[in-house]
Write a structure and sequence with these properties.
Oligomer: homodimer
Strand order of the largest sheet of chain A: 2-1-3-8-7-6
Number of domains of chain A: 3
Largest sheet of chain A: 6 strands, mixed
CATH class of the largest domain in chain A: Alpha Beta
Number of helices of chain A: 15
CATH topology of the largest domain in chain A: Molybdenum Cofactor Biosythetic Enzyme, Chain A
Shape of chain A: globular
CATH architecture of the largest domain in chain A: 3-Layer(aba) Sandwich
Helix content of chain A: 40-55%
Strand content of chain A: 15-25%
Number of strands of chain A: 17
Chain lengths: 425, 425
């Protein structure tokens, strides 16, 4: 079953806003077994909206339109739909009464501009009229067409709670059995990944894609077959083959981020981490604490941006800072040891470097980063030389710091992480 | 002059990867005065690629295609272009020799799969053959068509360094004089912004758009006219009117983020900031240090995730933690005072709260956040109740913390920040 996605809004075609809603819709539809035929982004122009909508209804089985449903003057989707599909707009009484009830809580003023939200093309069925979220379904030429708001949170909620369940009742038999996964790879270039995979001689039904997603490479594996058992068998054997040739360069799968993998390993071993960050300025701690429940393995961190912070909070001696410089092997180790000792954590991670664009020297150019780890039995420091801009250098440094912790924790193990992934198949 | 953008890649239509390159291209083309007719995202399918390309060449003045130029097996753009536009692929000798020279540095093996990078559709002019970045231009039916790699860094560099300069030599006279800006608003809902603006009765040539960009609202102002002076005059008067009705709810303009505005104000006043973060876990410090040169006004921070960190690093007494709880007005103030005193900064900012999804109570539900500020003359704490998921709560908390600092710094001033913006017009 083919789906086309149309995102509407001048804010998207002028590039002011990144279109995250279409990607979210595509991922969820794709994972539910639909084929995404194409995605379009067009401005708030009724004629273009109508043209794109009609072409999509002609050639695919379902259409998803996002954006332009609000009550401000630049929201023109309903007008465009009405004209293109020849369905005059009419007031939806349920929505009107919901708006009135909402307003009654705060004012006795008339509905005013909000009334626009209730005027929908003929035949529209509101998806969630009581929720105060715009969004409706039309059946046009016997095909489902969904209209969702452009506001990401609302769009996502309506897609998951309403659109996917409704769609699943359409043309069920057309689905192919689909198995797919993403292997997330760090520290191995795309061409090297490609070269290793091409030694495998996988059957042509196995679809492999390579995607550099800075700072990682993602390898996508998709297997489709009319027979579920065939697809499943081929998928499993392909996974095993890929895991064998790529080893622990694969740090995780699907949506599992590096910080989640590290968190899981720390938790499994009941170890606690504390972090001292200089050039990454809080990025690593932010990543770690993105995960709910991270307080189980993360004690805290010190962002020692100024040298006084390195001295006061991490016990890095001013003499050492003076002698070796803040960006040095010695200071990275002292920071890691300092944050570990002062916090009582099992592992201390420290990052100091030059993120740029200024501050580089011949000896220590922009991109020079020292990452130190302090643990019970030993400390060590790795020097990196990252290229790119400030954002890239900071992200490479953060990811590399987490990857060093991951490898340290895996080393401790007799069983490797990817053997755990194995068990899933 | 109308431009259409086509992004190619299964990784985009399956939603695995967010399409950031199209937005980047749209923003830069739009700011250079071009109209973005539409943007499309399609999978690695030669027939779809060809169809979209031909339709675009038919209806707009220039086309930009990104993705599918690499040397892995799923890169099919050149093949599709070759078929759709009837231009057989041929080896580009300059690219071949550049690949050879690159390989010579590391291996004596034959070019192998990399040779694919050198086979381009007839008539292709490589944009930067020595750079090892794929990317070329075709003139088809007297219209420029650009093909860029999908890798964001490469695409961005080639767009800015090659595509925009080449495009500017085409049809110069078709450009309208365009003035545009984005006003960035925090802490005022979209409908309220709309209501205030609608009191202005701006002329119809002034195009206003409202965009909720969590956690902000962006107001876009665009004025176009054949005569530069008319456009400029109308733009200036509209800016002044908007600034007057929205006041300091407007925190910045265009790409100026909240953290940059705060940094600029701190620097202007020669004040230094230190931060103690609990529920935001490093997010505020990360935002502040995203800006190069932030060491001029940011000393560092403490991520006091565990209570022991609050006690050891911020001198928050265990008794106070026990008595009031880590998420409390008293602890927020003590954290702000602690980080200010211990670091010797002028201002201490502290955030403690419940980001969720767990940890809420009836008295302090998920989303409860206390933000404390300690300064030379006084300390104060504000309680917030944010709604949404963990990501939203953390981002609202971070943005609110920065906004409190901004308002504190503006209060200190007789001249307000938006009066500075005024001066630009």
């Amino acid at each position: 079953m083919k789906v086309e996605i149309i995102a509407i809004g001048d804010e998207l075609t002028s590039g002011r806003i990144l279109n995250t809603t279409s990607s979210f819709a595509a991922r969820n539809l794709f994972e539910a077994g639909y084929e995404i035929y194409a995605m379009h982004t067009i401005g708030d122009s009724p004629s273009l909206i109508g043209e794109a909508l009609k072409r999509a209804i002609d050639r695919v089985d379902a259409v998803l339109v996002t954006g332009g449903l609000g009550n401000t003057d630049d929201d023109l989707t309903n007008e465009a739909v009405s004209r293109a599909l020849n369905r005059p707009t009419m007031p939806n009484l349920e929505i009107l009464s919901s708006i009135r009830a909402y307003l009654d809580e705060i004012t006795t003023e008339p509905v005013g501009k909000l009334e626009k939200l209730a005027w929908l093309p003929e035949g529209a069925q509101a998806l969630s009229p009581q929720s105060r979220m715009a969004g409706y379904q039309l059946i046009h030429e016997d095909k489902p067409v969904f209209f969702l708001p452009g506001v990401p949170n609302q769009m996502k909620q309506l897609l998951v709670d309403h659109v996917l369940p409704i769609l699943s009742t359409w043309h069920k038999d057309h689905h192919l059995a689909t198995y797919q996964t993403i292997f997330r790879i760090f520290n191995l270039p795309e061409t090297e990944v490609n070269r290793k995979i091409s030694t495998l001689d996988l059957p042509t039904d196995v679809h492999i894609g390579y995607y550099p997603v800075f700072p990682e490479v993602h390898l996508s594996l998709i297997v489709r077959d009319k027979k579920n058992n065939n697809a499943k068998r081929l998928f499993r054997s392909s996974c095993k083959a890929i895991l064998t040739v790529l080893g622990d360069a694969i740090y995780g799968q699907d949506r599992e981020s590096m910080e989640r993998v590290v968190g899981r390993l720390l938790q499994k071993k009941s170890l606690q981490l504390a972090i001292a960050e200089s050039c990454t300025g809080g990025l690593i701690s932010k990543k770690i604490t993105d995960t709910p429940g991270s307080s189980a393995y993360f004690l805290g961190g010190v962002i020692s941006y100024a040298n006084s912070f390195k001295n006061d909070y991490l016990d890095v001696s001013l003499q050492l800072l003076d002698q070796c410089g803040a960006v040095s092997r010695e200071v990275a180790e002292a920071m890691a040891v300092g944050v570990r000792n002062n916090s009582g954590s099992d592992i201390g991670l420290a990052v100091t470097g030059i993120a740029g664009p200024d501050g580089g020297t011949d000896e220590k150019p922009v991109g020079t980063v020292y990452i130190g780890i302090a643990a019970s039995e030993e400390n060590w420091v790795t020097r990196f030389r990252f290229s790119g801009d400030r954002w890239q250098i900071r992200n490479m440094a953060a990811q590399s710091g987490l990857d060093l912790i991951r490898k340290y924790l895996l080393q401790q193990d007799t069983e490797k992480q990817h053997s755990q992934i194995f068990e899933q198949y």
